[in-house]
Amino acid sequence: MKFLDEYRDAGLAQKFAAEIHRVTTKPWTIMEVCGGQTHAIVKFGIDELLPKQIELIHGPGCPVCVTPLEVIDQALEIAANPKVIFTSFGDMLRVPGSTTDLLAVKARGGDVRIVYSPLDAVKLAAQNPAREVVFFGVGFETTAPATAMAVYSAARKGLKNFSVLISHVLVPPAIEALMSSPNCRVQAFLAAGHVCAVMGYEEYFPLAIKYRVPIVVTGFEPLDILHGILLTVQQLEQGRAEVENQYARAVTRAGNQPAQDLVKKVFTVVPRKWRGIGEIPKSGLGLAEAYAAFDAEKKFGLTDHHVEEPAECIAGLILQGLKKPHDCSAFGTRCTPEHPFGATMVSSEGACAAYYRYRRYEPQNAI
Ligand code: SF4
């Protein structure tokens, strides 16, 4: 398939792997900050092609995983309201809150609908003026522009029955939080290509300088990831800490300016809680004052409450690269994708779900 097969060529993968072996002389720990990359690494066994000295650890790059339980509970409360049509991307429907999930609310009669674009939710609001239509806006910088466009469009149409429950998060503040931790093991980052396709990679330069850490913007296909690792290891071995762009076919330094302008117009930067990690300053997006009328949290008078994660879940340590899924006593037994306990099992992009799916049950088989 065009644009797929050429990035999965086994012969080229072997060449990249051989070059990584050739340049590696010391142990290095590299974190990928993207659930899609984690999934590809485990699925294609990329880690198993690398020298033993190179450890890949999995960062907080799965947007479904880092959405706090409290926000899922808020979504469930709104979705159960008979006056509401609750709309969401499909991947949020099976994510459990503290007692149930959106699919169960739908089964009990809640009007929960999957949409493929937030603009579909705006259309629903225009078609159903007697109902409240709410869109569940979750994800990184990648999905934020589409949510922003929906709010902007609803405002221009003068829709009073549309709102958004927002849990958008930003990658650079999460990198800053990881690097500031005294327990940080990360020596280099593979930055998420799709986030940078929107935001560019200007924001990464101060981080690379401040923490002396190489950051390589990397794509998702096996050859992208192997190439990103090679560029990263070359920097580490040569004592460089620079920002490089492996994913030049999709990412420019400045990113998508119209998308960024729209995000700046509709949103403001706020502190945001990340599931499994806790609150990170300036790491989220909330609606700007001019669009506050579209804030579902305010419209429905939702109260902020605190929900405890299961005590045995070590997802927070996994998201910080301090543990691996098979270090968890519940992994694959009490905690599975059908009955997830914690952040990194709830989405197929989460590290626990990827390890479970591709049978990385034992440490010796793992990264
Ligand atoms: S296997 Fe389940 S309980 Fe264990 S860390 Fe992963 S999500 Fe948490």
Q: Cofactors and ligands present?
A: iron/sulfur cluster
List the secondary-structure elements in sequence, H or E. HEHEHHEHEHEHEHEHHEHEHEEHHH
The number of helices is: 15
User: Which bin fits the share of residues in helices?
Assistant: 25-40%
Q: Give the biggest sheet.
A: 6 strands, mixed
Structural class: alpha/beta
* Strand arrangement in the largest pleated sheet: 4-3-5-6-11-10
Please give the oligomerization state of what you see.
Answer: single chain
Question: CA-to-CA gap between the ends?
Answer: 29 Å
- Averaged pLDDT, please? 93
**Outline:** globular
State the total count of DSSP E strands. 11
Q: Could you tell me the radius of gyration in angstroms?
A: 21 Å
Strand residues, percent = 15-25%
Which spans of ≥5 residues are poorly predicted at pLDDT below 50? none
Outline:
By secondary structure, the protein is an alpha/beta fold. It is 37% helix and 18% strand. The chain is globular and about 65 Å long.
List the helices and strands and how they pair.
Blueprint: H1 10-23, E1 28-32, H2 35-43, E2 54-58, H3 63-66, H4 69-79, E3 84-88, H5 102-107, E4 111-114, H6 118-127, E5 132-139, H7 144-157, E6 162-169, H8 171-180, E7 188-192, H9 193-199, H10 204-211, E8 215-218, H11 222-238, E9 243-245, H12 257-266, E10 267-274, E11 278-287, H13 296-299, H14 315-319, H15 351-357
Parallel strand pairs: 1-2, 1-7, 3-4, 3-5, 5-6, 7-8, 8-9
Antiparallel strand pairs: 6-11, 10-11
The protein binds iron/sulfur cluster (SF4).
